[in-house]
Amino acid sequence: MRRSILLAGAIALLPVLALAGDPGRDAILSDYAAQARRLDPAFTGLSAQRGETLFRTKWNGGDPRTPSCTACHTADPRQPGQNAKTGRPIDPVAVSVNPRRFTDKAEVEKQFGRDCKSVLGRDCTPAEKGDYISFMAGQ
Amino acid sequence: MRPGLLCAALLLLASPALADDERVRPVTDPVVRKECGACHMAFQPAFLPARSWDRLMAGLSDHFGEEASLPADKTEIIRAYLTANAGDKGGQGEARKFMRWVAPQGMPLRITENPAFLRKHRFPDAVWKDPKVVTRSNCPACHGRADQGLYE
Questions:
Q1: What pLDDT sits at residue B143?
Q2: Is the dihedral of CA A56, A57, A59, A65 positive or negative?
Q3: Cβ within 8 Å, pair B66-A113
């Protein structure tokens, strides 16, 4: 009896555990969401779908060698990438392949600064950054 | 025939010592390895004189068109390491040949424009257009152990 209750509890918990993120990544996500809300009171939440659009869109205004994020991270974020300017290999950016992705705030901010400038020719907004990580967290 | 064989044997015997002599001291500082190895291999400081590294570290916000700025504390750690191990502070191995081409006041920013580099890298266009290579500064694409300072 007790056993089966425990078992039921464990089974009920399973999907939650599988979905639970890393505390560092969760903190980064809620920080971006809070910043986005401050900038735009109508902001309703981060969106993995918008993140995917950001990832795949061919922008104008950045470095012509890197029209989109996929130029270095490839169209499949689970695959290793290659820096289009230097040829250096890049580890996959999908969280399922690389659970340590997007867990260090300073690293994430530094890289958004460089990569958004290279691809979009401007900084990404907090909402765009949160969307992007939401997309990668589900990949 | 015999002397030829002997020569080959001698060469084989001598090669470990030779390799050691040609080795460029690899980058050991963890901050340099991480920050200067993020976009390309962390190049060995022996390939450029100290004044070149000073100039490069002063211009990270426009680094060959890249925004490569770092916090001031990290910038200083890296600058100190690169200048202390620069080619004009007793360059080692293969990198010695590079220093011979640098004018006394010269401050080159590229290793790949040094004549010592150019004369060893006269390859057909097809080699440089290989998608694994991308650019001349991608040393590890052709030198598997470049990161360890070995350019065989």
A1: 97
A2: positive
A3: no
